[in-house]
Design goal:
This is RNA 2',3'-cyclic phosphodiesterase. This protein has about 180 residues and is of the alpha+beta class. The protein has 4 helices and 10 strands, in the order E-H-E-E-H-E-E-E-H-E-H-E-E-E. It binds adenosine-2'-monophosphate (2AM).
């Protein structure tokens, strides 16, 4: 069995820009910068033979390169309790389109549809044990964050091993995106 997800890897320069945001909330569990990524589709545990089908389906996708701009911070909650803190991504039709193609390709090979609406983000920290007022103040203070736009030229199938401290993510396959036509 393999635990897989499809994501955009982030180049080191962007990871260090984002890492500059970490800190300042007592009780928060910050994601190690090497683990930063933007998930396009969480797959979860699947059999090896099915992983092969997933790889074949992803390899058929014809997507286009685009610029990704990370900006702003926000939170996700579960049952009224704030769980995670993230950096958002500027709206981008090419990104949305790519995510839609991935979803369609994975459903075609038999994966159940993703029910959650796609909300592009890079998780910064787990904050379920942090005081609410500190998280709220942090979001207000960092809302204007903007990273340097980065050119995305491939997407990646990652495997994930759950670790004690942090999960270990391994890029398994990279799928190229077609270069944009010159303007
Ligand atoms: P998150 O960053 O918002 O937690 C690897 O676990 C990636 O898949 C993470 O980026 C995680 O999103 C995402 N993911 C989406 N649904 C998940 C789930 N049910 N369990 C674990 N990770 C999930």
């Amino acid at each position: 069995m393999l635990r897989l997800f499809v994501a955009l890897a982030l180049p080191p320069e962007i990871r260090s820009e984002v890492a500059g945001l970490a800190g300042g909330i007592p009780g928060a569990k910050w994601v190690p910068p090497d683990n930063y990524h933007l998930t396009l589709r969480f797959i979860g545990e699947i059999e090896n033979w099915r992983a092969q089908e997933v790889d074949d389906a992803l390899a058929m996708i014809r997507g286009h390169a685009f610029d990704l701009s990370l900006r702003g911070v926000g939170t996700f909650d579960k049952a009224g309790r704030i769980q995670s803190l993230w950096v958002g991504a500027e709206r981008n039709d090419t990104l949305t389109h790519l995510q839609g193609k991935i979803e369609t390709a994975l459903q075609r090979v038999g994966l159940p549809p993703e029910r959650k609406r796609f909300s592009p983000h890079v998780t910064l920290a787990r904050v379920d044990r942090a005081p609410l007022d500190k998280v709220v103040a942090y979001v207000q203070a960092h809302n204007l964050f903007r990273a340097t736009p980065v050119s995305v030229q491939h997407f990646t199938l990652f495997s994930s091993r759950l670790g004690k401290e942090a999960s270990v993510y391994t890029p398994e396959v990279e799928y190229d995106l077609a270069a944009r036509a010159a303007a």
